[in-house]
Amino acid sequence: MNIQKRVKKFNKQFLFFKNHPNYEDIKTLYINNILKSTSSVNKAFKKIKLTKKGEIYKTSKLTQEKIIQALGRIGRNNIQQNYSIRLRDEEQINKLFYIEMDKIEVRVMNTLFHT
After folding, report:
1. Whose CB has fewer CB within 10 Å in the chain, the N or C terminal residue?
2. Which residues are CB-neighbours of 115 under 8 A, at least 6 positions away?
3. pTM (two decimals)
């Protein structure tokens, strides 16, 4: 598939991710055929991302585990330094510091293994 077709397909299929902080980076990876399929592009968009300022990008299904994983990525390459994070709203703070009674991942795994 040539570059113009890939650009057109990407712009049409992933328009709703236009405000994602990594939109241009993922688009470049897809156009250069590093991300080969649209499903791998979807996965890249749906992973929780950090903005360059260290803020958590708000996704539709934010879980405690995803927040912890994202916080673990801060400063991974530069150890022994002080870092700060900014949570965008109270919902993210509650997800991080309070116990979740109904975990989405647990429910999905239970339905997979009990059928």
Report:
1. C
2. none
3. 0.44
